[in-house]
Write a structure and sequence with these properties.
The complex is a heterodimer. Chain A has helices at residues 17-28, 44-47, 56-61, 120-128, 146-160, 197-208, 255-258, 260-263, 315-324, 417-427, 471-490, 560-578, and strands spanning 3-4, 8-13, 33-36, 74-77, 85-86, 168-169, 172-173, 214-215, 225-226, 232-233, 269-272, 276-282, 289-295, 301-311, 342-345, 348-356, 370-373, 392-397, 431-438, 447-455, 461-466, 494-500, 517-519, 543-545. By secondary structure, chain A is α/β, with parallel strands linked by helices. In chain A, a hairpin with a 6-residue loop joins strand 12 and strand 13. In chain A, helix 5 crosses helix 12 (560-578). The radius of gyration of chain A is 23 Å and the shape is globular. By secondary structure, chain B is mostly helical. In chain B, helix 5 (84-93) crosses helix 7 (116-126), helix 15 (338-346) crosses helix 17 and helix 16 (371-381) crosses helix 17. Mean pLDDT of chain B is 87; it is low at 5-23. Classes of the chains: A alpha/beta, B mainly alpha.
């Protein structure tokens, strides 16, 4: 029997990036806010202390900061005619667990989507004709535009102290930035990170074949920074331990560095850790949430009443919670009706490793230290001759040179023994890898629902992921990978390159990206989406859903920048409109 | 004479500034709250994870452990039944309601300087906090100090009872600073050397002290390890925000900044700075300058490069407002390196204040560095970039390591 707790104004499921933003904004509005986090509390000191964080075996190989699949997982299959089986080890994607969520272990590669990414279906149909898109493709326009979101992108970037160079200031293209980006109102808060040798070589090569390289906007502070809340970041030291690690130097933007110092001082905010939310509770009408039920570390069940419920968990968990709480209609791929679980999408990632004749010191890296070309992303090029839509950026990263997982040897090198050691010695200091980071469209057959067989330790059905790469996206990735090879060939002093393409079926074994999107998508009508343009459930108006589960399809960018902007957009609507007159905002 | 009298009146008015801003009961409560913060009462009178002001925090002293009293208005275990006069006597004379002597771990040698109006306001405020029934464990003091009556002798020797009297030769600001520093703030309780009976050595007041394996730096005009080169603005910023261009509050001072000085109004923080800047130079234990020992200490230099440069930077400059500089640092160059050793071994947290909310952490290296490593590292830091303090020995590190482990 659940113990009923004292009501709060707003309860947040999860305590990562989106919860930290919502909590900061709603406590500013005077609400009593409680965040429930399934993992433990973590902070820079002592958890990410530079005295111990550079432990690749513990964090990258043994995955110390991620969801533990022996506690929580999902089932997976490539297509609807297969039987899904539980994912018993993490591989393809690595959801974070604990305070700060994946905001602790991200690289800091921070992007805005292109203006046309927000109108992907109408834009592509208009430019290439309706028949250009395959029948099974279920992509749809966002119910808001790039211009709507621009002030919130700005707010997010200044929160994080993003290091970068504007490519488009109020419509004027800027030398050194991304000429394809949407117009931004002002420069980045910090200048770009220092260049590494590999990115300088990439820059020269890309320019020599007429492309437009620029530094990736980075959530790694290039200089000491104080954000508008008063939280401070220290200068990045290029230690090379960003992705999958917490930052010990207060240099990577995370909830811990940018919001928590301010939020945790507030009397009207509280959080509970090791609190696993199993359900959003609804009243007898099914139209209003009364709060949530959670289970603590000792297995005790609690009911936490709240006026407002905000789902701030990882995208997959948000969708799972909607499904088990029976909020909205589950998606049916046979009829293409229902919304919850619809348009699950992912990311396409291939690599081209480049071997240089000169030393490039790969160990001096930062998570978002990279030079990028966006010439083949989104609709930045004419897709007419190619028969696919969407695209990818091509980046030369120098994220680090960790001893176990971050080194490159030429194709044909033995996997172990003397030959491997010799090749490693010759190439460790003289190699770097390019990434072809592409979008994935949405399709009827790719979706999320509840598994009919497998259950979690709380008795809830596991979520079932049905997903495979489709022809459009494989064609796109192949095309852009070929363009990356052209850059590799143009690198001066290159001793060769390896192409590691992305082909065939999607598999959950090899790490690709933790960019799982969709399932609770944003739209202009309850018939095509789970949430309205303010991230409010169409079905239960006091439930809001944050995060990348809102994306109707996945553009060719890392999702976090848009997650931040969309959260600020939703928070603004909650504060300025919903709190004054609770109810449906659309 | 007339001029002096005027200045005295002005000084007294300044002393009572906080009272005159407000009127009525609310005013008295606000004044009380302000003074309770200025006096940092909560720090000793609240146990870790305990209810505010319910006491029972173990206060380690050289003579054993004293448990702080419950000062919530609970009638059975707190000060709920105390009259204003009882409370005034406790603060003014160090005598409890039942007539017994309080141990001078309770800073009545400073609180005796508080005005009657201010003491009454403090009592009014404490009457409003949530009453908590909390029985205080018996003190664990060594013989013969477990005899409370001996405190009467101690008082005769060292206790100078009496309210603050303004110095008519000084400005109202100076007098306000003196009132706060010598009274509620009880700064010299930590920042002074103590005699064998734990009393402040009056002639050496503010010349730095030691407690719980931390050094409280010299506040008089000493260059290397003191704050003489700090401007009044440096001091004001440090008190109000926990950080200035020279350092960041760590160790016990981080708690003092968080709970106490960051709540001061700007005028009071400036007044404290003005008073401290006017302290006479203490010359008796001037830090010894040593020739650089950085050269030849490659082990220390390498450890510094690998473990410290990320925050404190290659040239010891730190990052402004974020990570403190070690170049020119008072803590780094203290004649007694105890605090620096303690910091390296145990790490520390910075103060979190409204304008500087990050609770930046120095990580602990006790599990990573041997005594030899810490000695080499600190010897390097104390002599690099123009720093001029002596070498640190393995045995100094060993003794701090043991002391810190014992006090945990």
């Amino acid at each position: 029997m659940a113990t009923r707790l004292k009501p709060v104004d707003a309860v947040l499921v999860g305590f990562g990036w989106t919860a930290a933003i919502i909590a900061q904004e709603l406590t500013d509005a005077g609400l009593q806010v409680l965040a429930l986090e399934r993992g433990s509390f973590r902070d820079t000191d002592p958890d990410f202390s530079p005295a111990q964080i550079q432990d690749e075996l513990r964090y990258a190989v043994r995955k110390a900061t991620f969801q533990e699949p022996d506690r929580e997982t999902l089932t997976f299959r490539n297509s609807g005619n297969e039987t899904a089986l539980p994912m018993r080890q993490l591989g393809s994607f690595l959801p974070g667990v604990g305070v700060g969520g994946a905001g602790v272990h991200w690289n800091g590669q921070n992007w805005r989507f292109l203006p046309t990414d927000f109108s992907m279906r109408s834009h592509c149909e208009q430019r290439y004709g309706k028949k250009f898109l395959s029948d099974d493709m279920t992509i749809q326009d966002w119910p808001l535009s790039y211009d709507d979101l621009e002030p919130y992108y700005d707010k997010w970037e200044y929160l994080c102290g993003i290091s970068g160079k504007a490519g488009n200031l109020n419509g004027a293209i800027q030398e050194g930035g991304n000429p394809f980006e949407g117009p931004r109102k002002r420069e980045f808060p910090l200048p770009p990170l220092k260049r590494s040798a590999s990115t300088v070589k990439f820059d020269e090569a890309a320019k020599s074949i007429g492309l437009h390289p620029f530094p990736c906007p980075a959530g790694n502070a290039s200089a000491p920074y104080t954000n508008p809340l008063g939280a401070k970041l220290g200068q990045c030291t290029y230690c090379g331990y960003c992705e999958w690690f917490g930052c010990g130097n207060y240099s990577k933007a995370s909830p811990q560095t940018t919001i928590l110092p301010v939020l945790l001082r507030k009397d009207n905010f509280s959080y509970k850790t090791n609190a696993y939310v199993t359900r959003v509770n609804l009243d007898s009408t099914g139209k209003k949430a009364t709060g949530v039920t959670y289970i603590d570390a000792q297995g005790r069940e609690f009911e936490q009443p709240a006026e407002l419920v905000v789902l701030c968990a990882y995208s997959l968990h948000n969708v799972h919670l909607l499904l088990v709480s029976k909020i909205g209609t589950p998606y049916d791929p046979a009829t293409n009706t229902g919304a919850v679980g619809k348009n699950y999408a992912y990311q396409m990632s291939a690599n081209v490793d480049v071997f240089f004749d000169e030393i490039v010191n790969p160990f001096m890296g930062a998570g978002a230290l990279g030079q990028v070309v966006d010439d083949f992303n989104g609709d930045n090029f004419d897709h007419g001759p190619h028969g696919f839509i969407g695209g990818a950026y091509i980046s030369m990263w120098q994220t680090g040179g960790r001893p176990i997982l971050q080194h490159y040897v030429p194709e044909g090198t033995p996997k172990w023994g003397g030959g491997f050691k010799k090749a490693l010695k010759e190439n460790y200091l003289r190699s770097a890898s390019m990434q072809i980071h592409g979008g994935v469209m949405s399709y009827k057959q790719n979706h999320l629902d509840l598994d009919p067989t497998y259950r979690d330790i709380y008795g809830n059905p596991l979520m079932r992921m049905t997903f495979d790469f489709q022809k459009n996206d494989l064609d796109m990735e192949k095309y852009v990978t070929e363009r990356a090879v052209e850059i590799a060939k143009a690198v001066k002093g290159n001793r060769g390159y390896n192409v590691r393409p992305r082909t065939g079926h999607y598999g959950i074994v090899d790490y690709q990206t933790t960019h799982n999107t969709g399932g609770a998508i944003i739209g202009d009508s309850p018939s095509n989406s789970a949430i309205n343009r303010y991230c409010q459930s169409w079905d239960v108006s006091n439930v809001f859903v944050m995060g990348a589960s809102a994306y109707p399809q996945n553009p060719g960018y890392n999702p976090t920048g848009t997650v931040g902007a969309l959260t600020y957009w939703a928070a603004d609507a909650i504060k300025s409109r919903y709190l004054k007159n609770p109810g449906a905002l659309v | 004479m007339r001029r002096d009298l005027l200045r005295l009146v002005a000084a007294t008015a300044m002393t009572l500034t906080t009272a005159s801003v407000f009127a009525g009961d609310y005013a008295e409560l606000e004044l009380g709250r302000y003074l309770v913060q200025a006096g940092d009462c909560q720090s000793c009178h609240t146990d870790a994870n305990g209810a505010p002001f319910a006491g029972a925090r173990a206060i380690p002293t050289p003579f054993g452990i004293i448990y702080s009293r419950n000062i919530t208005p609970d009638t059975a275990t707190g000060i709920g039944g105390w009259s204003d006069e009882d409370f005034y006597r406790a603060l003014h004379e160090g005598i409890s309601r039942d007539g017994s002597h309080l141990y001078p771990a309770f800073p009545y040698p400073w609180y005796t300087r508080l005005s009657r109006v201010d003491v009454a306001a403090i009592k009014s405020y404490l009457d409003t906090v949530t009453p908590v029934r909390q029985i205080i464990p018996p003190n664990k003091l060594n013989w013969p100090l477990n005899w409370r009556s001996l405190v009467a002798v101690w008082n005769k020797l060292f206790f100078d009872e009496g309210e603050f009297h303004a110095n008519a030769d000084k400005s109202p600001e100076w007098n306000r600073g003196a009132y706060l520093v010598e009274g509620a703030g009880h700064c010299s309780a930590c920042h002074s050397p103590k005699n064998i009976l734990g009393a402040v050595k009056k002639h050496d007041a503010f010349e730095g002290g030691e407690g719980e394996n931390w050094l409280a730096p010299d506040l008089t005009g000493r260059a290397l390890d003191g704050v003489s080169e700090w401007s009044a603005d440096d001091i004001t910023a440090f008190l109000m925000t926990g950080v200035n261009s020279r350092t960041r509050a760590t160790g016990p001072m981080a708690e003092v900044v968080e709970l106490s000085t960051s709540h001061l109004n700007a005028d009071d923080a400036k007044a404290i700075a003005a008073y401290l800047k006017d302290l006479p130079n203490g010359a008796s234990t001037a830090a010894k300058e040593t020739a650089g020992t950085a050269t030849g200490n490659s082990h220390g230099r390498d450890l510094y490069a690998d473990n410290c440069t990320a925050c404190h930077m290659e040239k010891g400059t730190g990052q402004p407002g974020i990570f403190p500089p070690l170049k020119g640092s008072a803590v780094a160059q203290s004649p007694d390196p105890a605090t620096a050793i303690h910091l390296v071994l145990s790490g520390s947290h910075a103060a979190s204040t409204p304008s500087n909310p990050n609770r930046f952490g120095m990580p602990p290296f006790a599990g990573k560095f041997s005594d030899d490593d810490v000695a080499a590292l600190l010897t390097y830091v104390r002599s690099a970039w123009g720093n001029r303090a002596g070498a640190v020995s393995d045995s100094q590190v060993d003794s701090v390591r043991k002391a810190v482990a014992t006090n945990k």
